[in-house]
Design brief:
It is built from no helices and 8 strands. The chain is mostly beta strands and 96 residues long.
Length: 96
């Protein structure tokens, strides 16, 4: 994964025979949301994206063809509130 020449990240392949960014090719192009990490298996790439608050895991073939998404449980609700006893602190309270 690289953020070179991209703000949101993309997945590249670097040839092992001559490892350099100059010889890299884009496998998964930049998306409209931030790519955070990638896990490569023998047959697929699992790319985690930050979609606002919750994460999204998209599946790609090793050639970069979209294969779907991994169902991810919704994130916990974390309302933000101001404590009346603390003048400038913001308190976070996460419901489970």
């Amino acid at each position: 994964m690289t953020i070179k020449d991209t703000l949101l990240g993309r997945i590249i392949a670097i040839p092992l025979a001559k490892p350099s960014l100059a010889g890299a090719r884009v496998i998964v192009p930049e998306s409209t949301i931030v790519a955070e990490s990638v896990v490569a298996t023998r047959t697929r790439l699992y790319v985690t994206y930050r979609n606002g608050g919750p994460s999204t895991v998209r599946i790609f073939s090793l050639e970069g063809k979209a294969q779907g998404e991994v169902p991810v449980a919704p994130s916990r609700r974390c309302p933000i509130s101001r404590s009346p006893s603390v003048s400038r602190a913001t308190m976070f309270s996460c419901a489970r």
